[in-house]
Amino acid sequence: MRASLAGVKHVVVVLSGKGGVGKSLVSSSLAVGLSLLGKRAAVLDADIHGSSIPWMLGLEEARVAVRGDKLVPPEVHGVAVMSLELLAEDRGAPLVWRGPLKAKAIIDMLTATEWGERDYLVVDLPPGTGDEPLTIAQALGAKGGYAILVVAPGLLVKHVVAKAERFARELNLKLLGVVANMAYFRCPACGAVHRPLGKLEVGESRVLAEIPLDPELADAVDRGELAGYVASSTSEAARALRGLAAAVAGAVEAG
Ligand code: ADP
Q: Is 240 touching ligand 1 by the criterion CB < 6 Å?
């Protein structure tokens, strides 16, 4: 593992309390945003249950290249993207392996990949703080690193934050802060801010970004055009996602 990650400067793992809060979207957007800042970035899709990164980034037809005994990931906007989905013969077939086997497959993939020189490797972990994310993060832990937590309003957020803090502490990861996704909706007609999912209370944690609900963003995800959206949309959500990359890079590089 250490040899395989030798060219990677910083690992940032992305955590969530449960599925559906936008963890994969945030992971992909963070990697694209870092690339826009001139950083060499890669994203690893380690969320085997809800693997969606190749789709969001329009890579459903892409294949991993094989060079010797190494796997060379495809790139989008300069971001190397690795996912078990990109190795599967039959895209879309559900992976029915049991937990430990899945975590092992992810770790094997991680070590077999030729990451090259990367300033950042963003890792989309499985949701929660149970065995699977733990095993994968532990394997990465040798490298030290950082974590961010994605939350949406109304999901016992304080509890989720406390769990993530413990998870990070146990793994010697520095928790940089929280991404408040789906935090609000701005009425396109009158500009009023609504919080349809409720208020978001994150306690003492630093909020790295507040990302509004944005139908244009949901649409870009569905069309596999998330990278283009993050790179060029002028929407509030796109600006917040670019701001997230700047906040993460700032925090990491400040030491
Ligand atoms: P997770 O990885 O946490 O399971 P995803 O990143 O796959 O969640 O996101 C779940 C769904 O919610 C996706 O269809 C995504 O497009 C949508 N979504 C997430 N955040 C937003 C947002 N801020 N605005 C609109 N749609 C969003």
A: no
Ligand 1 mean position, distance from CA 225 (Å) = 14
The finding on whether 24 has its CB within 6 A of some atom of ligand 1 is yes
Give the separation between CA 195 and CA 213, rounded to whole angstroms.
9
- Residue in 221, 219, 244 with CA at minimum distance from that of residue 31: 244
Atom of ligand 1 at shortest range from CA of 56: 16
Q: pLDDT, tens digit, for every residue of 220-255?
A: 999 999 999 999 999 999 999 999 999 999 999 997
Those residues whose C-beta lies under 8 Å from the C-beta of residue 216, and which sit 6 or more positions away, are: 229, 233, 235, 237
Three-state DSSP class for residue 197? coil
| CA within 13 Å, CB half, 228 | 10
pLDDT per residue over 175-231, tens digit each?
A: 999 999 999 999 999 999 998 888 888 778 899 999 999 999 999 999 999 999 999
pTM of the shown model: 0.94
Please state whether beta strands 118-124 and 41-45 pair in parallel, antiparallel, or not at all (unpaired): parallel
Residue 55 to residues 62, 63, 165, 196, 239, Cα–Cα distance (Å): 10, 13, 30, 28, 22
By alpha-carbon position, which residue is closest to atom 5 of ligand 1? 22
Is the CA virtual torsion 187, 161, 167, 249 positive or negative?
positive
Number of Cβ within a 10 Å radius of residue 170: 13
> Cβ(50) to ligand 1 under 6 A?
yes
